[in-house]
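Duplicate of earlier report; Kinesin family member 20B input re-posted below.
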Amino acid sequence: MEPALDKEKFFRPSYIASVELPQRTGPVNVEDIKADLSDEFSLVSSSSDISQRSSLESKGHIQVCLRIRPFTSLEKENESQDCVSLEDSTSIILKPPKNSLSRLSEKTAGQLIQKFTFSRVFGPETTQEEFFEGTMKQPVQDFLEGYNRLVFTYGVTNAGKTYTFQGTEDDVGILPRTMDMLFKSIQGKLYTAMDLKPHRCRDYIKLTKDQVREETSIKNAILRLTKEVRGVIMLNLQSYF
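Output:
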């Protein structure tokens, strides 16, 4: 039989207040302090006006957009470009490749034809600007008005996710266009002084002139170190190749 433990010896102090807390003598009733915070944490609180609520409800919770990339030369050689066809602005039709139809009966081939519906479908001829206007512009505007928005891309390898999100130097994607729209929207509203520093999660501290100079020196030292490291890496790569 194990000996009884000394409760006072093994009592742990609070790591929050750094003091020992009294032991509980019984269950604590918290019914009187419970509060329903669903309205405060919902997209539209109970105090919002009716027009704002109806506007959000009409948009729906999730929008799924499909962008079809152009076919590669290899895909065209294999005559697989007829697999995907646009029925309208929200639907596509998927069919088996032509080279597989010879091995399938007419009934089986008909059963493999499928129709998929999305919030909106963008064809291979869609430009980066048109895609941004049709998918991202409104969510960014909603974000500027105080609503949370989440956007992500999904697709198989080589589907064109990186091109859609980042684009190229000459034809940028939705991410650079989003950042451009955000910063243009807050022009003239930026705090130009450099004397504020984030503190913890939701707070900040105002720096003195000496602290500003110290922070500037630290930043410049980090930037110089980054350039030096990059230079060493480039030299090593050149000597390797």
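Residues 7-22, 41-58 have pLDDT under 50 and may be disordered.

Merging into the original ticket.
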